[in-house]
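Write out the bound-state structure for magnesium ion.
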Amino acid sequence: MNFIKRAGLYCFRQRFKTLILFLVLTIISTFILTGIAIRDASVGATADVQTAIGGKLLLELDTEGHMSSGQNSWGTVQSYNGDLITNEIVDAISKVDGVVDYNSEDKASFYGAAIDFKYLPASFNLSYTSYGEASSYTATLSSEKCTEFQNGKYQLVSGRHMTPKDKNVVLISKELADYNNLSVGDKINMYCMDSDSKVKFEIVGIYDGTEGTSGNALTVDEIPANCGYVDYAMMFETFGKDYLNGYQQLTIYVEDPVSIQNVYDKVKALPELKGKTLKLSIDTDDYDVVATPLDSLQSLVNTLIIIISFVSTAILTLLLTIWIRGRKKEIGILLSTGKSKRNIIAQFFTETVMVAMVAFASSALLGKLIAGKASDFLLSRVTSGTANLNIQISAGYLLPVYMIGIVLIAVSVAVASWTVIRLKPRDILSKMS
Amino acid sequence: MCIMEVCNIKYSYDGRKPVLKKVSAKFELGKIYTILGPSGCGKTTLLSLLGALDSPTDGQILFRGEDIEKTGLAAHRKNNVAFIFQSYNLIDYMTPAENVALTSKLPPLPILERLGLTKEEARRNVLKLSGGQQQRVAIARALASDADVILADEPTGNLDEDTAAEITDILKECAHQMNKCVVIVTHSNDLAKQADVVLRLKKGELQTKVR
Ligand SMILES: Nc1ncnc2c1ncn2[C@@H]1O[C@H](COP(=O)(O)OP(=O)(O)O)[C@@H](O)[C@H]1O
Ligand SMILES: [Mg+2]
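---
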């Protein structure tokens, strides 16, 4: 009778021990399987995030060494004397392969007083223009890419976003629109104090998200609902070339984050940028916000897999040690019939592996049930709870579980057999009666 | 013919005074040997040396003229000798048939039936057999291994008189009909009377008495 048949008989006849071993191995492999599945899902999610967010390049003014001091009515002021990002540069960048969009966003760069509508009132009404108090507007090329819309604070509720082609258009809050009974397509007029001119705007979009954010505003421009978005084309016309001749910064959106370095190199090499006091950099902030928790989830899961492997090897070793010590008589009999020690250890190993084969397979079913819950729990530890993972346990995951499992079992059986097997056959026989 | 020979073996449990001082003996096929002697005189020790469960401190054991130390102790246990113990030593998660199959490729049922077990008994849990039946299974296992030498340590020690007599007959048959060399350690005079050669172990030395 060979050791495989002996192992089979043992597992079949010692059903209670087999059941306990089955449960222990199922639990261990479910943990490892779940760990691997969560880690893989988060690796996949990181890649998805990378594609979804896309890549961004940032073109900024290089202020270092390009500031000069001058005098005005307020005293000494520092001002930038380098190059600005001109429309010519923006045009050239927009034509680079791989660039899908671009935006410049300058908060509070336009102040307009309401001529034919009213701002939501603040505590003080200073009325410093002939049309009352002025509110501030964000000048932008592509309102969709502005911070508040990107982070979800504002949502467009009617109309459309403004694009670089627009001129004399405005996006206003729903609160302001409701207050004045305005809707998309209506025209409004503002007085701009800085240029001492009246400007006519068409409302192209109305957005939501400003409610309840006004607080105890002292001036109208402290109420977010009063502060809309205006286009840059209007800015250039209103202020004229002498006063405003370009953008302070430009965010460039790249289609495929994988090729971001490539696009960076192409933009950097544009003749329009040659010798200009501008800096170009790759912006990874948005990506980091999402990827960092996923990264820490991965290292948490990796650590857990290692700890679980160690702990389960220890538990398994302990269990097998107790059982094998109880089998001294059997070992003695087998030795006295001429079975080698290696043959006997092979039997113990086979017994455990046989049970493990079934246990690992059933852990795939169990893993399906608990992996989702486990990942939600772990994610809630490392993020504020916004991320979500698509956990799948496929047959492919069983392969690493089987490989890790069989190595762990081999270690456990070797350690557990050690104390008994290093005895002489005669010692075992004299101790077994 | 001489199948196994013990030449001047000495044995002591690490560092203590020797249990076996200078033991020599010859064993032949087709004969029953009994080893007699008071408790603690070293009978089991001698038997375990014959069965290569341990090695003598000094001297050598030859099987068919070859030193078993050189041909390998595990191989000697596997091919040349078979043990029968007082406490039967059957593996409890195996049936009698499976216990017999442990040492052989031969079908176990005919062997068990020849030793008086029914087919049903041969497939029962070994712990649900009587002592005599368990010892028959152990003898069947020894016979199935096809070893030339059967080493039995007080095989009737746990059995009543009638059963002991039956087992003794079986062992006698093993020697005289199946041409095995049967070495039995015993207290029982009845068993000793059946032996062809009686060996007496006293103060670490062996006296031989051929009948
Ligand atoms: N494993 C052992 N370690 C130390 N001494 C032992 C061991 N086994 C037996 N002895 C001693 O060796 C002597 C012979 O033992 P044993 O061969 O079992 O005697 P017997 O079988 O004749 O009763 C006894 O004095 C016993 O105490
Ligand atoms: Mg004894």
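---
Chain A has two domains: 3-49+290-432, 55-283.
Residues A 430; B 13, 19, 37, 39-45 surround adenosine-5'-diphosphate (ligand 1) (CB under 6 Å).
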